[in-house]
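forwarding from the other thread:

> can someone predict this with adenosine-5'-triphosphate?

sure thing
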Amino acid sequence: MTGINESIKSVLKRSHLAAQLSKKNIGQEIRIIGWVEDFRDIGKLGFIMLRDTSGLVQCVLLGKILLDARNIPRQSNVSISGIVQDTKSKNFEVELKVDGMTVLSAATLSLPIDPTGRVESNLDTRLDNRALDLRNSRVLNIFLMRSGILRTIREFFFQNGFTEVNTPKIIGSASEGGSNLFSFEYFKRKGYLAQSPQLYKEQLVLSLERVFEIGPYFRAENSHTLRHLNEFQSVDLEAAYLDYSEVMDLIEELVKKILTFAGHSGKTNNDNNHIYNSTIFDNLVHQPFRRITYEECIDELNNLGERVEFGDDLTDLSLKKLGEKFDKFYFITDWPLALKPFYIHENDDNPLLSKSFDLQFGYLELVSGGTRQHDVSKLKARLKDQGLSLEGFSNHLKAFEWGMPPHSGCGLGLDRLLMVLMGENNIRETVLYPRDTVRISP
Ligand code: ATP
Ligand code: MG
């Protein structure tokens, strides 16, 4: 290797991340790499605020290096070496006195958005330039949190004896009935994008007992709300020998684990631009989530002056009213069977009701789940009741004749959970590249 290559290699090796620097490092020669967020020039002295994924470092520049720095556009990617020293700044524990600087990749002078957020851009412009938008620490924190939550979810499932599975997203027939499927040409026949892994995860219980999947749902719904996308991520579980109340127990435990994780890791970088509100959530870890039956909700709504009858679905307005009354996390249980898909089990005492639940956060539905019907003759009757063809489900139904254990499960909308935790009211903020009725790129 030539000397030049060696020196290029060495400028690509950082010794520290921004957030790792502390008073302990004073006097050490170190190397950091990141993006020039800001440059302040006060004549004989200049300051670069260098950002990496962990946070910011204040870099002090003098002499020739200061002259060179005047030509570096903001957001350029640079490698900086220097000596760590004490600082007068209130925002930092230490600063870096720069002795070497290499521009790895210069940014253009006219950026489409200002990642510092000082010049505000609307959400559409930010999403059009999402990769750059992520240099904003508030935005970055959402996705660092999302990644940490995904790890927490996986750990939780493995600790509870679940196997992670991946089921196909290209399917040959409408999986749950329903008309909101995207279809496309698949080698001279029709293919569809899966609206959920429901049928597959139930079939897998036959041999794996406990499965979970984290993957996309596709819904061809023409919704224009702040909580619906046409592609979103769901955390699905299905478990043999549990009933719906035990699945509620599991989901409650999982959500509390996530809250605990978020509370600990809340301060994900060192510039305090952090929006997880632990004061709201820390308390919730220690109290049980309320469980309210659908019928209690109907009574409550009538008390609040809404005219709702047994059998009505809960409208946006009803959910808003319930959300004001019950606040934070609560379950709505025992929905009318007629409102539920064919695979949901009826209530043993009252066949008009079902063994089902939703987890809500205020007005927002986060999870739907229930005990599944595993008696194949009842399953067939339910399919007929809902006007679905047995033929179309023959592949699925045969698994129920091979010793299918009684089972229950649910699906949790990951992007919606992130909205709740990060205090966002638009789901587009919690998805890297959201897909809605008008947005299909980038
Ligand atoms: P909603 O009534 O809010 O439209 P749903 O009852 O149709 O939701 P489910 O089929 O129960 O949704 O899906 C499971 C979970 O996936 C929901 O509880 C929710 O958290 C999430 N989810 C459903 N639809 C969407 C969507 N279009 N965009 C984002 N998340 C969604
Ligand atoms: Mg639902």
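Residues 219, 228-229, 232, 234, 365-368, 411, 413, 415-416, 427 surround adenosine-5'-triphosphate (ligand 1) (CB under 6 Å). thats all i got for now
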